[in-house]
Amino acid sequence: MVVICYMYRTPLAWWLMNKWLDDFAYRIDMSWWIFATAGPLLVHCPAHRKFQAIKAALMNPVKNLRMNRRIYVIIDIIRKYDNRILSH
């Protein structure tokens, strides 16, 4: 669906941008590669979001909470060590 919309709207966007840029004293040309690089990004971003959502849904929440607890214990140890060094 995104690819179809991209292919349908790209020529219109290019034409509108060229018409808008014609009104400026210092004009730049809209190259084709600007739209060519935008297309894969439009496909990649939703696909990446879907992948991350599925990965989060399939993850075991207990394992994640255990890992978070370990991180907090390590942070507490580092803080105690830093306080001991700073107090001397």
Describe the secondary structure blueprint for this structure.
Elements: H1 2-21, H2 32-58, H3 61-87
Helix pairs in contact: 1-2
Q: Kindly name the structural category.
A: mainly alpha
Amino- and carboxy-terminal Cα gap: 64 Å
Helical coverage, percent range: over 70%
Largest sheet: none
Tell me the domain tally: 1
Instruction: Give helix and strand order, one letter per element, not per position.
Output: HHH
Quick check: average pLDDT? 78
Specify Rg, calculated over alpha carbons: 26 Å
- As a percent range, the share of strand residues is under 5%
Q: What is the count of DSSP helices, taking H or I runs of 4+ residues? A: 3
Sum up the overall morphology in one term: elongated
Number of strands: 0
Uncertain runs? none
Describe this structure in words.
The structure is a single chain. The chain has helices at residues 2-21, 32-58, 61-87. The chain is mainly α and 88 residues long. The radius of gyration is 26 Å and the shape is elongated.
Describe this protein with a few key phrases.
single chain, 88 residues, mainly alpha
Brief overview, please?
This protein has 88 residues and is mostly helical. It has helices at residues 2-21, 32-58, 61-87.
